[in-house]
Write a structure and sequence with these properties.
single chain, 30% helix, 18 strands, 14 helices
């Protein structure tokens, strides 16, 4: 088990009864009299820990290999490494990030079916053997650059109901799979299993059932050709928050019977997955500050448009946008909505508002329309569930810097991490210890606290 005490990032301990929301309020209060109100994150590492236990409760046969591309923050990678997770890496840089933390190569799968030759050689030199492929050209590159690789054949799925489709780019058909397995045999390469990905943001769990059945067919093909097929990778597509139509357990309740049918427990097949957003989405909350405001007066022309009731609409400009953290709107089809940091007055009217990022690009719109009370420059908006495909792809376009990330963890979560370090991961701990860990945000529990009483101790981990 990797240590969780030596890396150079800070987190703040939460006192008993306090949450990440209290740290948000505390940091906002600290700059209340200053003009320097930069956007920032608060990330609850305890939320990642809870997700890990929830995973093993729902999918006891499946080992998670975290998709680093989703959020490559060192603190996240370090936390998951300490918990014993594996890692899905897509590049030399991601492999280096994970290995620099101390993750052994056998806990890494190079899950990019189309790799640059120099990066295949890097994987070979780094001891990373598991890697995916879906074409003959890829097989020939691997035969040249990494002939000892343990290959996993990526097959296509019906991801037409996913938010972000992947099979339009990756995956071999069943017919092509047989040809590829035959070619791998000719090249004296070792194929050990099959992988698939139903698409990011899966909305139909039956897609997993068909993909698992297809994987069984390819396993049988490989076995017929003399390969020792012993690894199944069921990819990602698992939700990271509760604000989705299809909940995590609704998916896993379909996956488990399909696995038991096609790959029974006594078959000796190792099963892994590549969750990304599942682990990190709900752990991150982003606070942005209103830096500018425009009032757009409505023409009193007798329009029936309900927006005209209040006679105006409002445009708010905040200090992070689609070229920064909100790139998830462009790249991940995200639909975000603000939470006001200040509670509105009961009798306060609402206006139709739009929210814009800070750059000089007209594309930089975060929210097209949202009804809110009138706010002022210097007020704050919060955005929940901002851990997935946000900071990892944020740019500094127009010279605007990425928000700082403030990590927090409750003392019970920290103590549980230490217990895992000493004893190894025990899934049965979940019932007695993890259920007592605090929720990541105060508004989820309905508990209000005074932010000034939050602990502010910084610990190097």
């Amino acid at each position: 088990m990797l240590s969780f005490s030596n890396e150079e990032f800070d987190f703040t301990f939460l006192d008993e009864g306090f949450t990440a929301k209290d740290i948000l309020d505390q940091k906002i209060n600290e700059v209340s009299s200053s003009d320097d109100k930069d956007a920032f994150y608060v990330a609850d590492l305890g939320d990642v820990l809870k997700k890990h236990f929830r995973w093993y409760k729902a999918l006891p046969r499946v080992t998670p290999f975290y998709a680093v591309k989703c959020n490559d923050s060192k603190a996240i990678v370090k936390t998951l490494a300490a918990l014993g997770a594996g890692f899905d890496c897509a590049s030399k840089t991601e492999i280096q990030l994970v290995q620099n933390i101390g993750v052994p190569p056998e806990r890494i799968i190079y899950a990019n079916p189309c790799k640059q030759i120099s990066q295949i050689k890097h994987a070979a030199n780094s001891g990373v053997q598991m890697m995916t492929f879906d074409s003959e050209v890829e097989l020939m590159k691997v035969a040249r650059a990494h002939p000892k690789a343990k290959l996993v054949l990526r097959i296509a799925t019906d991801d037409s109901k996913a938010v972000c489709r992947l099979s339009v780019k990756f995956g071999a058909t069943l017919k092509t799979s047989r040809l590829l397995l035959e070619r791998a045999k000719e090249l004296d390469l070792d194929v050990i299993g099959v992988s698939f990905h139903v698409g990011s943001g899966c909305t139909d769990p039956e897609t997993f059932v068909q993909a698992i059945s297809d994987a069984r067919c390819v396993f049988d093909m490989g076995t017929e050709l003399g390969f020792s097929m012993h690894l199944l990778d069921i990819g990602g597509g698992f939700p990271g928050s509760e604000e989705v139509k299809l909940k995590f357990e609704e998916i896993t309740n379909v996956i488990n019977p399909a696995l038991d049918k096609c790959f029974p427990c006594d078959s000796g097949i190792r099963i892994i997955a590549e969750p990304g957003r599942y682990y990190v989405a709900s752990a991150f909350t982003l606070a942005v500050n209103i830096i500018a405001k425009k009032v757009v007066l409505k023409e009193q022309s007798g329009s029936d448009d309900e927006d005209d009731i209040n006679g105006k609409t409002l445009m708010y400009y905040v200090n992070d946008g689609v070229y920064g953290s909100f790139n998830c709107i462009l790249y991940d089809h995200a639909h975000v909505k603000p939470v006001l940091q200040k509670r509105p007055k009961p009798d306060e009217g609402c206006y139709s508002c739009s929210i814009w990022g800070p750059t000089c690009d007209g594309l930089d719109r975060i929210v097209e329309r949202f009804d809110m009370p009138e706010l002022q420059v210097g007020d704050w908006m919060l955005f929940e569930n901002m851990g997935a495909y946000t900071v990892a792809a944020a740019s500094t376009f127009n010279g605007f810097q990425r928000p700082a990330i403030n990590y927090v963890m409750s003392r019970p979560a920290w103590q549980l991490m230490q217990q895992i370090n000493e004893q190894g991961f025990l899934a049965e701990v979940e019932e007695q210890d993890v259920s007592t860990l605090p929720l990541s945000c105060a508004w989820e529990s309905g508990i209000e606290h005074h932010p000034a009483t939050c602990a502010s101790t910084s610990i190097n981990v």
